[in-house]
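Exam review. A common question shows you a sequence with its structure tokens and asks you to describe the fold in words. Practice with the pair below. Do the first one on your own.
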Amino acid sequence: MRSAAWLSAAPVVGAALAGCSSAGVGAAAEIRVLDAGGRSVDADVQAALRDYDLARLQGLWRERLDRLEAAGWIERAELHTFGRLAHGVADHWKLRETLAADAADRKQATTRRLAVVDASLPHLLAGLEADPHDGELAFTAGELLAFRIDGVVSGLRLGPESEAWLRRSPLPEARLALAKRFYYLPAGFGGDLERCERELLALLAEHPDLEPAWGFLGQVRVAAGDRSGAVDALERACDLNPRSLRGRAFLDPLGVEAAP
């Protein structure tokens, strides 16, 4: 008999995914395992997340997806790991969409982002069906729902469910994800760079070592035309993690050399 630590991970698709097409692919520096007596995540995963190593993240994500789909069930701590890997890969492709030099590159990044989301979300939502109070899964599922948005129609359908899950999570990364909405939303639907910056600054006042938030603050300030403020935020991200995804991505175009 399986212990309570094991979940059915059959692809039970939530209402938010109704009508989404399936296809075959932001990362926090640490994984919080919320199980009582939970074990630590293996060092290889931690290093890939810390270093924002896209090739390694994709490989680790695919390994776990194949294992999950073959077995049909997974230990909750492993589902947390799977969610963080999926989040890390999708965040990479979301950023590549933002930085794409042309329409073809942007389309490729979008396709890969949607693929990892569509393959991962059913398993995360199944975990939340088993335990709706799992704050780790609420964060990763909530942000992957946001990553699934690819226009106004899907935003109206998926946005409220994404926000609801993110608000259930106590993790500071969930607050970061909520702040990101004001960057990605069109102006007519609540998008507001100044509001996004205020939300990020409030979060960083409480969590000054949250490197992804400094990186995203830099991205927001680049979009707002605040070069000096962007450099300050991006350099802070790189001080906290020399491999900072957004620190390294945005400093070079600004003519500032990222830390080695």
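Now try the second one, then compare your answer with the model answer below.
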Amino acid sequence: MRSLSLRPYVATDAASVLGLCLRLAANTQSSAAHRLREQGAQVVQIHQNANADIWVAEDCDTTALIGCIAVIGNSLDSLLVDPAVHRCGVGSALLLQACAECGSPLQVQVCSRDEAALKFYGKHGFHSVKTQSAPDNGAACVVLSQFQNSEQKPEKTQKEKMVDTATDGLFEGATHFLFSVLLGGD
């Protein structure tokens, strides 16, 4: 893990966040690059939202901004990490900071094709709660939620609900049969 410091975003970070998005866009295919540039502008606008929490990661040696995370309520809006420091713990540190500060389970929406993001969030305790279509590129989006304890579970799929209903019916039938036998009924 790199030597970094985390701190709340301040208005003077705007240019650095936009620069971070441009560096990310330079390493990405053209359709995603456009969204990354928009995302940088969005983070700067989110800062004005009273319900938003934004933290930045700075390299302790250079004081360069190397990451940023934006959360609105319990929804993770953006997690940006400089490509030069990918897989160095910056994203994990920012995510852990956001989780600690928010106090409630976070949710994030991820493209179903983004295996790296799905693996990253899974490593940090996020689980799929639903899938929805994305109109812009046709790829499905997965909504992931982080659970604070074992009692919070994702919503069951239709198939799981059908299995539960079937097993409940079987259990009730078996219970009725057992009591009939024990009580000498038919």
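Model answer, second protein: Confidence is low (pLDDT under 50) at residues 149-154, 159-164, 166-182. The radius of gyration is 23 Å. Full marks require stating both points clearly.
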